[in-house]
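Tutorial handout. Part one gives the primary structure; part two gives the three-dimensional structure as tokens.
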Amino acid sequence: MKSGETTVVSTIRLVKSALSYARIEKGSDLTEDEVLLVIAKEGKKRKESIDAAKNANREDIAEKEAAELEVLKRYMPEE
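Part two.
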């Protein structure tokens, strides 16, 4: 696996987990809009993590979260 792919794979795994949790919480399959909401929620978490990491002078964590956010943007609707 290429080094850039590890970020993609781990981010997609996180999203799959979040979608699975949301599906269990709802008790039925998610609609397309609900899937997009879960992905947007994960993107918001990454943005907040980037801000917190920068405030704590943790550029390494901020860079990791930014890379994950870029992967999530591929699946998020245009704003």
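Part three, for discussion. The first helix runs from residue 3 to 26. The radius of gyration is 14 Å.
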